[in-house]
């Protein structure tokens, strides 16, 4: 049973997310890893309220079947990641090349 007081657990197994993370330039990759380290230390309530992460529901993109909603969060100063919540896990999906790409805009 998922709880908003539970610690956030990371799922970094999505191949698209891994590809995006591993092809970032070194400074951005390090910033992304710092953000992931920060997320691991938060409860879900803290993650939802964190002003630096800016957890937001994406309404312009329809989530895949079996997923309630897709969210974006700031993973580096210049980039946002997409993710969804699955129990206590945050399942990371992508790192957008730019801010607008996160929301499916061209």
TrEMBL record:
This is Uncharacterized protein. It comes from Melaminivora suipulveris.
């Amino acid at each position: 049973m998922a709880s908003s007081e539970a610690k956030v657990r990371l799922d970094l197994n999505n191949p698209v997310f891994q590809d995006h993370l591993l092809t970032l330039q070194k400074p951005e990759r390090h910033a992304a890893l710092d953000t992931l380290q920060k997320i691991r230390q938060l409860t879900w309530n803290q993650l939802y309220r964190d002003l630096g992460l800016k957890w937001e529901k994406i309404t312009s993109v329809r989530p895949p079947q079996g997923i309630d909603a897709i969210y974006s969060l700031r993973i580096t100063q210049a980039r946002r990641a997409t993710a969804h919540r699955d129990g206590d896990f945050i399942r990371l999906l992508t790192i957008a090349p730019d801010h607008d790409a996160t929301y499916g805009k061209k």
